[in-house]
Design goal:
The complex is a heterodimer of chains A (about 280) and B (about 475). By secondary structure, chain A is of the alpha/beta class. Helices cover about 30% and strands about 35% of the residues of chain A. Chain A has a seven-stranded antiparallel β-sheet with strand order 6-1-2-5-4-3-7. In chain A, strand 9, helix 4 and strand 10 form a beta-alpha-beta unit. The longest helix of chain A is centred in the middle third of the chain and has 13 residues. Chain B is α/β, with parallel strands linked by helices. Chain B is built from 20 helices and 15 strands. In chain B, the strands form four sheets. In chain B, strands 3-2-1-4-15 form a five-stranded parallel β-sheet. In chain B, strands 6-13-7-8-9 form a five-stranded parallel β-sheet. In chain B, helix 17 links the parallel strand 8 and strand 9. The chains are: A alpha/beta (about 280), B alpha/beta (about 475). At the A-B interface, helix 1, helix 2, strand 7, strand 14 and helix 8 of A face strand 5 and helix 15 of B. FE2/S2 (inorganic) cluster binds next to loops of chain A.
Chain lengths: ~280, ~475
């Protein structure tokens, strides 16, 4: 049982929660995630650790409502308890001093898991260019925090309501064409990561993506999270979640993520109906 | 009451003489009362209903109380089998329970899931004369259930607290047993468990229809009463390392993290939607209760289900799929019935429940529909070739002969590997080539204060062996701590 000590709405469907978890706060590194479960009948869902506060012994999660489990979590309030929080899971991000700049690209709620990576690259002395992308202005989150740790920030919105109009790859190409980029990190919806990977491949920029497959245990025990990377089956929860973007079979991953769609949609309707 | 366990005790002699060996041999082996196949394959009710007191008494009479009981040599933890059985015969069931518990901590579990036909029962003297063995497993279960239901379940005596903290990593049968033994010796025991539930495979793997969770719960509650602390949602090596725990005062560790990693076959199409490991399938259903609409975790309700493998895990998967409403459930196994590693009783139950066995078949490719969901599996027809070094005939492909089967869900149950999480986080713990932890006969690892046992040392093995390791490790850990 972990207490929620703070909550903030970043946008209508994106919520930041600060949760007591002193051990995880201490052990976690950029790139790690936790598995949370809300209620005894709840599902185990993975969420990236967006930050931690060692004095308070808390971690922050930023969750987007997409279905039943994420809604149950984001419906909780300060003073409520999350039934289970376990972690930190996965491999931490490899942060190295780079010659050129590091291009950090976040789509939608993906900016939350990206933030600690941006901060770690900055702390390692790298020049950081961040690209934040969303459908519209209201969905751009954590802009101030990102600015604090970035040398340059490019904002892209699909409808042009903020920053520049266009998809994330437009902003990425702009950065790649203007200076030497040693590495790109991309976190966002799978379809965005797929196209971002195609884009950096064209320019031969080594790229890391953080995959958000379906998971159950998060400890390597079930294989629900498996993806094909470089022709080999990998478990995202233990081998990842970060992989070489140019080796990931995104088409397979996109299909697998839709595996339970019908059941999820049905469950979400039931959940909304009884609210 | 005379509670001597000696074969020469007066009570024992009296019982032995009360009936001639010939008459004992003439009694037929008891038949377990089972729920009708066509009822049970639609429900989660426990299949074996247990013996009645009369049945148990009669079965106990079959035991000849051999001077050199061969059955005991077949038991990995050498339960004093004739002594507990003769206690049943004289009506002292609680005493029988005490005898079993001298060497085994989880009799209600082992009585249900041990492969007795390969262990104690395979050695029973009756089998030498072509008769079925004494139903030792059923009697063990009867004894444990009787004790539990009597309300007189003895909580083991706990020595005065010695203030020394020890950690158990993993809450499967090995971990639970070690925790109990250490608590008895007065240690301050904490069990760390990665999942949100305590029990390991007993909870997330073995289904309710074979081993009701309530039985495992009772054992866990007893440990709580003995002062054992449980920390679920705690992954040793991630949430905190052993070094950090040492700094918090833990003096020794027992690693019992199991062999939880599922293997896949690496054949084309295996990552299609609808294909999963048996661990995923059973975890969704048993741990997450996915088949119950009240719970949030989803699971597929396949109509034509293929399960690949021949072990207990495969049997649990086919029988679960049937219970979740499949029209056809095929068990695809590359060898023949004789080589199947599953318990005989599970194979029999699966057959009765309408599982279709496709022996000497092996999947070589999966075909998916346009959405990426599996729709067919191509099976290679196999035949048995020459025996290998161990005398087991290995399957070889019959060139050019394949079968294509329509399916909408596949469960891959071809084995597990040890979880590398602990060795990865603690490089000073040496592993073998198979990835299991290196340990001495005393179950000490390459790090002095770390002991290990169960599947993490043996690879996928059995509950009784895991339990035996838990006891042995506790004894050696105690010795180690006293020498400090
Ligand atoms: C390592 C990892 C880290 C993650 N970090 C975060 C995070 O920091 N913040 C956050 O909001 N989410 C994160 N996710 C995704 C999050 O786990 C899912 O959104 C959540 O499990 C959905 O559960 P649900 O029951 O609410 O929705 P479901 O009912 O399961 O799904 C509802 C809809 O959302 C889609 N969906 C399901 N899973 C995902 C997914 N992983 N990504 C995108 N769409 C999905 C489904 O296809 C469906 O259409 C992460 C996932 C992984 C694997
Ligand atoms: C479906 C199935 C059916 C089976 N049927 C039978 C049967 O009928 N008869 C029989 O004798 N055997 C059977 N077995 C095998 C038997 O269950 C195992 O041999 C036995 O459970 C091993 O016990 P264990 O204590 O070593 O590990 P497990 O029971 O595997 O428990 C290990 C526990 O450690 C936890 N863990 C792992 N890593 C960490 C960590 N880093 N920190 C904290 N916790 C951790 C895991 O989450 C798990 O709960 C079956 C196995 C399966 C999967
Ligand atoms: S071998 Fe059979 S008959 Fe002999 S003591 Fe053991 S159970 Fe009884
Ligand atoms: S989530 Fe189960 S193995 Fe990765």
């Amino acid at each position: 049982m972990n207490l929620i000590v703070a909550k903030e709405h970043f946008s209508e469907n994106v919520v930041m929660l600060e949760i007591e978890a002193p051990r995880i706060a201490k052990s976690r590194r950029a790139g790690h995630f936790v598995i949370v479960r809300v209620g005894e009948k709840g599902e185990r869902i993975p969420l990236t650790i967006a930050g931690s506060n060692l004095e308070k012994g808390t971690i922050t999660l930023v969750a987007q409502r997409v279905g039943v489990s994420s809604s149950k979590l984001t419906d909780l309030n300060v003073g409520d308890y999350v039934t289970d929080v376990v972690g930190p899971l996965g491999q931490a991000t490899k942060i190295e001093k780079q010659e050129g700049a590091v291009l950090c690209c976040g789509g939608g709620v993906g900016v939350a898991p990206l933030l600690p990576i941006i901060q770690a690259h900055k702390a390692a002395g790298n020049r950081v260019i961040s690209v934040l992308a969303a459908r519209t202005k209201d969905l751009i989150i954590l802009e101030d925090e990102v600015r604090k740790s970035s040398d340059e920030v490019i904002i892209m919105t699909d409808d042009g309501s903020y920053g520049e109009k266009g998809v994330v790859t437009v902003g990425m190409e702009k950065a790649i064409e203007s200076e030497k980029i040693s590495e790109a990190v991309v976190i966002g919806p799978p379809i965005m990561m797929k196209f971002a990977a195609l884009c950096t491949k064209k320019y031969n920029v080594p790229t890391v993506v953080s995959l958000n497959t379906v998971m159950v245990d998060g400890t390597g025990m079930c294989g629900a999270c498996r993806v094909t990377v470089g022709g080999k089956t990998k478990f995202v929860c233990v081998d990842g979640p970060e992989f070489d973007a140019h080796q990931v079979d995104f088409d397979e991953m996109l299909k697998r993520m839709g595996g339970y769609k019908a059941q999820e949609a049905e469950a979400f309707e039931r959940y909304k109906a009884c609210k | 009451m005379d509670n001597s366990i000696s074969r020469d005790a007066a009570w024992r002699e009296e019982i032995r003489k009360s009936m001639s060996p010939k008459d004992r041999m003439a009694i037929e082996r008891v038949k377990m009362t089972e729920v009708e196949p066509n009822i049970r394959n639609k429900s989660y009710i426990e299949v074996n209903q247990g013996l009645t007191a009369e049945q148990a008494l009669l079965e106990a009479k079959r035991c000849l109380d051999c001077p050199n009981p061969a059955c005991m040599t077949g038991c990995p933890v050498e339960i004093n089998i004739p002594t507990f059985i003769k206690n049943i015969e004289r009506g002292e069931i609680l005493e029988a329970a005490r005898v079993i518990k001298n060497t085994s901590t989880l009799p209600a579990v082992c009585g249900r899931v041990c492969p007795q036909e390969k262990q104690c029962e395979s050695k029973c003297i009756h089998t030498k004369t072509g008769k079925p063995a004494v139903a030792i497993g059923y009697l063990e279960r009867f004894t444990a259930d009787y004790e539990r239901n009597s309300g007189k379940m003895a909580i083991p005596e706990v020595a005065p607290a010695n203030g020394k903290k020890v950690a158990v990593v993993g809450s499967g049968p090995a971990g639970l047993t070690c925790a109990g033994e250490m608590a008895k010796l007065g240690y301050d025991v904490t069990v760390f468990e990665a999942l949100h539930e305590i029990g390991g495979v007993l909870k997330y793997g073995i289904p309710e229809f074979r081993l009701p969770n309530s039985i495992v719960e009772v054992e866990i509650d007893n440990l709580r009463k003995m002062g054992v602390k449980f920390e679920p949602d705690f992954i040793v090596g991630k949430t905190a390392t052993m070094n950090e725990l040492r700094e918090e005062g833990f003096k020794a560790f027992f690693v019992a993290s199991g062999a939880g990693l599922p293997r896949f076959m690496g054949i084309p199409g295996e990552n299609a939607i609808g294909i999963m490991s048996s661990n995923e399938y059973l975890t969704r259903v048993n741990l997450m209760h996915a088949a119950d609409q009240e719970f949030d975790t989803p699971v597929f309700f396949g109509k034509n289900v293929v399960v690949v493998g021949g072990g207990n895990t495969a049997m649990d998967s086919v029988r679960t799929a049937k219970r979740l409403g499949a029209d056809h459930v095929y068990l695809v196994y590359r060898r023949s019935m004789d080589e199947m590693p599953a318990r005989k009783e599970e194979i029999k139950h699966a057959q009765e429940e309408g599982i279709e066995f496709m022996l000497l078949h092996n999947p070589i490719e999966y075909i998916a529909d346009e959405k990426g969901h599996v729709k067919q599996v191509i099976l290679q027809v196999m035949e048995l070739g020459e025996p290998d070094e161990r005398g087991r005939r290995s399957p070889v492909a019959v060139e050019g002969k394949t079968v294509t089967l329509d399916t909408d869900m596949v469960v891959v149950s071809v084995g597990v590997s040890p979880n590398p999480l602990i060795p990865n986080a603690h490089p000073d713990l040496k592993t073998t080539q198979k990835g299991t932890l290196e340990a001495t006969d005393e179950l000490q690892t390459t790090v002095e204060d770390v002991f290990a046992g169960g599947d993490i040392v043996r690879g996928g093995a059995t509950v009784i062996l895991a339990m035996g390791d838990g006891r042995k490790a506790a004894a050696n850990m105690h010795k180690y701590l006293q020498s400090k």
